[in-house]
Structure formats: C-alpha cells, structure tokens
Amino acid sequence: MTIHTLLNNLNIQEPFYSISTGLNEQVGQGEKIVISSPADGKTIGEVRLAEASDYNAVIVKAKEAFPIWRTLTAPQRGEIVRQYGEELRKEKENLGKLVSYEMGKSLQEGYGEVQEMIDICDFAVGLSRQLYGLQIHSERPNHRMFEQWHPLGIVGIISAFNFPVAVWSWNTALAWVCGNVCVWKPSEKTPFSAIACQEIFKRVLERNDLPEGVSNIIIGDSSIGNLMASDTNISLVSATGSTRMGKSVAETVAKRLGKTILELGGNNAMIVTEHADLTQAIPAIVFGAVGTAGQRCTSTRRLLVHESQYETLKEKLVDAYRQIRIGNPLDENNHVGPLIDTDAVTNYQNTIKTAQEQGGYICVGGQVLEGAMYQSGCYVEPTIIEAHSAMEIVKHETFAPILYLMKYQTLEDAISLQNDVPQGLSSAIFTLNMREAETFLSATGSDCGIANVNIGTSGAEIGGAFGGEKETGGGRESGSDAWKGYMRRQTCTVNYGTELPLAQGIKFNL
C-alpha cells in the first residue's frame, strides 16, 4: 500500500498544504517544504509553512469556537471525544501505518501510538463525569465553601516528531472535556500524521454541527511556537521537546504570567542489581534502548549494573543486539527502523566519537548502515558503549539508540549515579529484593517523575500522570489528576444566613 493510498483512505485531499493552517480555505503563506520518509527516502508530500498572518487567522477561529464549546456540558463534550475514539478505531491500521512511515518507528509502535489515542479518549470520556471539586467546611456559621473548576480557554500544544500523534492526544482529549479549544503545532518533520488526525476529528465536528475551531492545527517552524508562547490569547502552552526549547517557552510564557506544561528531555537509567532476574531484564533493556530507534524521551540511555552481574549481562546483551533486525519499519519482521533524518545520524556519529574520546569502549554497533535497504541514509546500528561516571557525555541526552553500560558496587552508588544528571523523567530497577525495590521508590531513591520496578523505563500507560522533574520540566500529562492543569480553580463561598460574620472572627461594626 502506497503512502498516498493511506492518505486517501483518510480522506485527505491534495494539495496537502491547503490545510496546513487548519483552515481549508486558506493556504499557508510561508516556505514550502518537502516531507520525505526516513524509511525509504521517498517524498510523502509538500506543506507550506504558516506565517504570522496564518497564525492569527487560526486564533480567530479558536476564539470563535470557545464560547460555543464551553457551553456544552462536560458529559456532552465527553460524547464528542467518545465519537472521535470510535473514528480512531476505524482508522487504526491506516493511521498507524502513516505514523510508522512518516516518522520511521516500527509498525507495531505505530499501531501502539494510535491505540494510545484511543485509550486517552476512553479515559477522557469517563473523566467528563468526574471533574470533581471539594466541599469545604466553613468556619463561619451558615456558610458553604466549595471549589469548582472552569475551562482556561485556548490551549496551545507543541508536539515533537517522535510521537507525532499520541502526545497531542494526551493533551487535547483532556483539554476538550475540560471545556477548552486547542491549537496544535506539530513537528514540521511529521505534519501528515497530524493533518490526518485533524481530518478525522473534522468528521465528528461536522456530524455534530460544531465549529471547526474546536481543534486547530498549524504547521510551522519555531517562529510559530514563539508566537504561541507570547500570545496572551493562549492560556496554557503544553510543549514537548528538547530542554532548550522548553526553557525558551517557559521564559516567554512566564513573562506574561501564563501557564505551561513542559515535557522535555530524558536521560533515563535502569539499575540491574545482584538480585535481578536477567531473563526478565534483558528484553526490557533492549526494547527500552532500541525501541523507536532510541528516539523516545523515555528511552533507556544508561544501564547501571551490579559488579556481580556485569560481565554476564554484557555478554547476553551483546548477543541480543546482534539479533536485532534493522530495516523498513512497515515490515513487521524488523525490530528497529531509521532515525528521523540525516541530522540525527550525524548527532549519533558525533556522540559515539565523543564517548570514545572520553574513554568509552564500543561493545557492539556504532555504524551507519549502507546499501539498497538503507537508501534514505537514516539507518544506524543500535550501540552499547562501556562507560564510566567521569564521562561528561553520559549526562547528555542523545536521541539515538546509544546505551551506556556502567558498573556499580552498592545500591546507594547506583541511585546516586542515576540521579546525577540534569534530567529526571523515567527510571527503573530490576531486583527481586523487596528492600532494594522499596529503597529505590523511597524519598531517598529515584528523583524521577516515573519510577518502575521490574519493568523498563519506556512504555507509560495513560492511566498515570506522565512527566518528570528537574530539566524534564515538571509538568504532567495524560491520566490521574493531570486534568487540573487544563482548568482554572475557583474557590466559592455562599452565605445563606441572615448575618455577615467575617473570617478569623474579625469585628467590623457600623
């Protein structure tokens, strides 16, 4: 099946750039760019990047839609999200293939990403009847205090290429049921997956006679992100990407006292203790390190192994890496697809070179693949590098399948090594010892937003709030009570008595 067949199955009409701003009748005024697949180097299509005038038009559409959308009851909004989930179920295969082809992740991961969208829609539908506030006992007689939650308005979502659709859905499904409308700037590296999601949702909006501006998409470069960050019309900016980008967004939004949810870099470690079950640990390590070609924010970057297990585990891992099948991500026999582009390949090569200069030793991998199968120039070998704590490179995140293998003596040493990086997203420990597991989960253990025992660092479920600490940004998306980030809290007091007592017993007699 060709990529154009996939797009046609999703009812996306050419020219594709005509909907790059989220407005069917308007063509983006900026530069035209060609989007090619890292799987085979072939052209998917063209989009014209939006400029400031296009952005302003999108904001107008969103502002027009918000008063209509927020007046629906939360369960009514949940019903719209439910219908979107049903449309996604119908399109799971097509959209999953598009994600896989455009981004380069394995087909199973492409399907999994769409399933995440379906799952968060289901979660949001239930949430639409659970936007609870607190009832508070007042110190004043004949008074009732309570908290309630209201929509923010326009939520801006900036997403990254590595999850072209799932992370957007985490944000937008919750934002929608909370009564907000959304403006989405996807990565300009993966625009067609985003456009497909928008087109699918349009079906639901049209069927329910709702304005298109409930969900808006604008394809643009960092200048559009800067406009979103500085725009007082956008109450909340949820940004996923590099720490550098997140700091810029946070600074700009903070200057206008806006709200942010930031999901930034990860430099995730897995600890393998002397009491670990290696049979269980090895597949978790391999998937965590090479899944999505190491281009997940939760990818396993550092493997901290107890000295008693070190040589055995190294030998088993090298053997497992030599069995990894690298190739076209649409072929389900392959484990690993390409990096997103040749710039990522250069970064992979430079990182390996730096690691070697700092004393690292390549156990396996380290090469860019060549030949007819790899004509896009984006395929690399998953790599294991023996490293030590003095190597500065291990404190930096590289979006590539590079795993640093390090030895430790005590659990305290391992936890210290794990936490001794600027990032704090995901972490894991493999042990059958309860004390080790509980120490890892305690206040003196992992300092990350995600801490797992006997599972890998990668593969979060939508039921739990997703996010991290330190330079990862501190925000939370998806499940649990993350919905509160998309609403404004209001404390209310009702006096139903005949007198006017003041708080703290203050007397003010006239």
Q: What is the typical, i.e. mean, pLDDT?
A: 94
Distance between the termini: 82 Å
The fold-level CATH name of the largest domain is Aldehyde Dehydrogenase, Chain A, domain 1
**Shape-level CATH architecture of the largest domain:** 3-Layer(aba) Sandwich
* Fraction in helix: 25-40%
Number of helices: 14
Unreliable parts: 13-27
Largest sheet: 7 strands, mixed
In which order are the strands of the major sheet placed?
12-13-14-11-10-16-17
CATH superfamily of the largest domain: Aldehyde Dehydrogenase, Chain A, domain 1
- Count of separate structural domains: 2
Number of strands: 21
CATH class of the largest domain: Alpha Beta
Strand content: 15-25%
Notes on the structure:
Mean pLDDT is 94; it is low at 13-27. This protein has 510 residues and is α/β, with parallel strands linked by helices. It has helices at 3-9, 52-71, 74-90, 92-103, 107-127, 166-177, 191-207, 222-230, 243-255, 278-290, 310-321, 342-357, 411-419, 434-441; strands at 32-36, 43-48, 135-137, 143-151, 154-158, 181-185, 215-217, 234-240, 259-263, 268-272, 300-306, 361-364, 383-386, 402-408, 423-424, 426-430, 450-453, 465-466, 469-470, 477-478, 487-495. It folds into two domains: 3-264 and 473-491, Aldehyde Dehydrogenase, Chain A, domain 1 (3-Layer(aba) Sandwich); 268-465, Aldehyde Dehydrogenase, Chain A, domain 2 (3-Layer(aba) Sandwich). The chain is globular and about 80 Å long. The longest helix is centred in the N-terminal third of the chain and has 21 residues, at 107-127. The active site is at 263. InterPro entries: Ald_DH/histidinol_DH, Ald_DH_C, Ald_DH_CS_GLU, Ald_DH_N, Aldehyde_DH_dom, ALDH7A1-like. It comes from Zhouia amylolytica AD3.
